[in-house]
Structure formats: C-alpha cells, structure tokens
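User: Please run a holo structure prediction.
Assistant: Happy to. Please share the sequence and the ligand.
User: Here you go; the ligand is uracil.
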Amino acid sequence: MDSDLWKLAGLQYLEHLERLGIRHLPRPHANLPELLVDWVPGDRGPGDRVPGDRVIVDRGQTTAKAVPSAPTTKIAQEAPSPVAPAPKKPTGPPVESPWSTPPKAAEQRTAALGELKLKVEACRLCSDLACRRQQTVFGVGPVTTRFVMIGEAPGAEEDRLGEPFVGPAGQLLDKILLATGIPRDQVYILNALKCRPPNNRVPNEIELENCRPFFEAQLEILQPDYIICWGATAVRSVLNTTESIGQLRGRFHWYKKAKVIVTYHPSYLLRAPEAKKLTWDDMQMLMRELGTLKA
Ligand code: URA
C-alpha cells in the first residue's frame, strides 16, 4: 500500500474506534495552518446532533409519497474510502453553461433575494419540518460576492438565530476561511435545506427536492464565480450526483458559469480532524486558482 492508502485506512480505523465510543486524539499535520490543527470538540447537548454527525437517515418523516433513499450514515457519505480511489468521472455539465438570466445590479439582487426570502418563509411543503422549525434559515452575505458556500441544513443554533453556520461547525468554517484568506463577510453562505431537520438528521430526497428551487434561485440571483460545497448533501444538491466527496474533491466542477469545489463538511472535520488536511488541500486548490497561494 502506498502512504495515501495507509492514511485512508487509518481514517477508517479511527471511525471504527469512534463507533465503539473510543474518541481518538487529534494529531497535528504537517502543512496545515496552525488555526486548523486544534481539536474543537462539539459542544452541543445530548441528542442534539449537528449536521454532519453520524445518524441513520430517518425514513418516512415526510408526508410526501416517495420513499427517501436507503438508510445511510453521514460518515459513510463523507469518510474517505480505504480502497484505491476509482478513476475520477466528470459530473454535472462537463463544461460551463450560461446563467439563465443576465446579471442583476446590486439593488435588484437585494430586492430579488428579499422576495425569495418571503417565499421561503411561507413554504410549508415539508409539513413536518415546517411545524417544528423556529424559523427558516435563508442565507446571509454580500449580494455581489464572488463566493457562495453551501452547507447542508440548519442545526439548533441556526434555527434559533436564523443564520447559517453559527454553531460549532460555523466556528471551524470561520477558521478555514481565515486560513484561506477569504473573509467570511465576503462570502454568501446558504444551506441546501432551509429548515432544520428534527434531531439534525440527514435531509431526505423529498425535502432536498422541495428546497432545490430556492437555492437554485439564490444562485441565479447571485451568479457567483465560485461555489464551495461543504459535505455530501450540498454536493448532491448542486451537482445532482450521489458520488462521494472522495471521488469528487480535488478538481473543479461546474454549476452553470460557477466553478464548484467539493470538500468535507466542517462537522465531519470536527470529528475526524485527520481529514482537515484534505480540506486544506481543497482550499489551496482554490487559492492557487485565485493566485493567492504563497509558494
Ligand atoms: N450549520 C449550517 O447552517 N449548515 C450546516 O450544514 C451545518 C451547520
């Protein structure tokens, strides 16, 4: 086995230990910026999973007819596989395609997003989620940004405050952005799902499809140059694929005219700090592209 495969096998082993309740200790990585090395334990209360945690997909919570995808775990979706990586297949449109509408001026964008936000707030398509939510979490950021970041779904803190990525995963996201040299206030942040799933379970297919028009409309209004997908759910929604992060990361994809970067969810990185190195590689790919990576 070459050294990469050993590393991947090690990650799987740590996963196995974690499943047995044995928490592994963080180890610093060469080439990882200092602020990404430290271990940030999840500080949520018992039973209050943050998105990205290992949880069996909850079937049949929605009133719609189709059956959600087979039970799976976040870890299975996110964790690098210990077997040799499959040859990388292109996904999504193979090349860039145009946005559907001409770019809007800043004031028009603000107005269009304001209207869309009202529609999101009025949405009750996923009746179970609508009954339980404190509020919808639309997204925040500058309307003329070059960067849109997409997460999975609001957690408890996001549901309470109405903003994405304000819990523990958000704190790590801030550090990643700082290390990447992209201030958070220059990024528009949104989630694939606008309502908190009960117990932060993985959103099901029906819920994601119900919410798809909203985030697609957000992207069409914002027309960013880059979209960063954090975790399997965002990838699934944006690239319309079930391929794993491991298969997709490390290269650019396209969503219309935006280049898409795929990487692990910060919640996953909180539990598996070994994978931070891979996310840092993905951020460096972006920095290389932007010309901001110092040699
Ligand atoms: N908070 C969010 O808003 N989204 C996530 O995906 C995780 C935490």
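The radius of gyration is 18 Å.
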